[in-house]
Amino acid sequence: MLEETGQDRNRELTVVMPREREQAGVENARLSDVLDYALKGKKSRIFYSADELKTYLKNRKSEGKGRILFVLSLGECGINLEIIRLIRFLRESGNILEGFIGGVIADSKSDLYTKSAARELVFTANMAGCAFVGRPLVEGTGTLSNFSIVAGNMGTDLMGAYRQSAAILTEQILTEEFQRKKKPGLLALHASSHRTSNTFALWDQVKERLEGFDIREIGLRNGTLSDCSGCPYKMCLHFGEQGSCFYGGVMVEDVYPAVKQADGIVMLCPNYNDALSANLTAFINRLTALFRTTRFYDKALFAIVVSGYSGSDLVAEQLIAALNMNKTFYLPGHFAMMETANDPGAAMALPGISERLDEFAARIQGTLQHSGKEVY
C-alpha cells in the first residue's frame, strides 16, 4: 500500500449499518462502542437502510474512489432483514459500487454466522464493483474468543482487541491504494486437463488479451501436491521463516517463489461438487507456512469459475473467505469470471462470451498494470 497522505485523512468513509425497521431505537451497545472507537477522528456518514444508501449512491457526485464500511448486526440467529434488503438492492443495481474500496465489521450474539453473513455480502458487493482490502473482515462473535491470540499480541483484553482491530480496518480502508506496475507478474494456478477443461479454455483466451505481463502457470495435478496436515504452530513458523514447509514438494520448489514474485494470482476453478477441487484447497492450506512470514495485501486475487450446472457463486465465496478474508489478498471489483458450461468446448460457444472475456482481461489489466512510464 502507498503511504498515507493528508488527502487520505480527509476522505469520507461511507458507513452502511443495516438496521431492521422494527428494531429502530434498539441499540447494539457493544457494536456501537466499537464503531465509535473505530470512527474517532475520521470523517464519516452513516446509512441505516438500503433505501438511504440507494438515494445517496444515485445522487453521489464525488470524484475518485469511494471508501465504504459495512457494519452487520446479526443478533442471536444471524438474520437481519435489512441486510437482506441491502443484498437485494446491490444485486439489482449493476455496477453501483464501481470504484469503491471496502471492509466489513460483523457482530453476533452467537459464535456463529459472522463469517457466512460477511462472505455473502462481500461477494454481492464485489459483483456490484466494490473492491476489498486484504483481510477486510473484523468479527465480533458472541464470546469474542476469536480475539484471544490478537488480544495477547496487542497487550489488551478481548474487547480492546475488537476495538483496535476495527480501528485498524477503517484506517486501512481509507488509505488503501493498490500499487500497479508497468510489467506486472501474474500467476495462474490450476488442476485441469488442458484438452477438456472449459476453465482452461477461458483462461487461454484471457491470457491472449493481456499484453505486457509476466505470466506463469503452475499445474497442481493429482500426485504432485500433498495437503496440509496441521503441523504445530512453532514447526510451521520455523519452516515458513525459511520459505519452506515440512512437506516440501512442488509447493516449496515452485509455488512459494511464484506467489512471492506475483502481483496477482488467477485461480482456475472448475466446479464439480459446489466446492474448490482438492488440489486447489490443498494449495490454500499449504500456503499457511508462507503466510506465517509473508502477507499478501499487495497481491490481487482473480478467478475463473466454471460450473457444469450451477453453484459458481459458492466457489467464488470460498475463494473470498480463504484468500481475501484469511490470507489477506486484495480483492478487486468483479474479481471472478463465472460461467456455466458442461460439455468440453461449451464455454467458448456461450452467447456473449467474447465480450465477457474482454471485460475480465481489462479488469486484470486495469488492476495490475500501470500504463505510464512511472513504476511504483
Backbone structural class: alpha/beta
Number of domains: 2
Arithmetic mean pLDDT: 89
Q: What is the CATH topology assignment of the largest domain?
A: Rossmann fold
CATH superfamily of the largest domain: Flavodoxin domain
Q: What is the CA-based Rg, rounded?
A: 21 Å
Low-confidence stretches: 1-7, 226-248
Q: From N to C, what is the helix and strand string? A: HEHEHEHEHEHHEHEHHEHEHEH
Proportion of helical residues: 40-55%
In the CATH hierarchy, what is the class of the largest domain?
Answer: Alpha Beta
Largest sheet: 5 strands, parallel
Main features:
376 residues, alpha/beta, Rossmann fold, 2 domains, disordered N terminus
Topology:
Elements: H1 6-10, E1 12-16, H2 29-39, E2 43-47, H3 50-59, E3 67-73, H4 81-92, E4 101-107, H5 114-127, E5 131-140, H6 148-154, H7 158-175, E6 185-190, H8 198-208, E7 214-219, H9 233-241, H10 250-261, E8 264-271, H11 278-291, E9 300-307, H12 312-326, E10 336-340, H13 353-368
Parallel strand pairs: 1-2, 1-3, 3-4, 4-5, 6-7, 6-8, 8-9, 9-10
Helix pairs in contact: 2-7, 4-5, 5-12, 6-7, 8-13, 9-11
What would your notes on this structure say?
It is a single chain. This protein is of the alpha/beta class and 376 residues long. It folds into two domains: 6-175, Flavodoxin domain (Rossmann fold, 3-Layer(aba) Sandwich); 185-368, Flavodoxin domain (Rossmann fold, 3-Layer(aba) Sandwich). Helices cover 41% and strands 18% of the residues. The strands form two sheets. The chain has a five-stranded parallel sheet, with helices on both faces. A five-stranded parallel sheet has the order 7-6-8-9-10, sandwiched between helices.
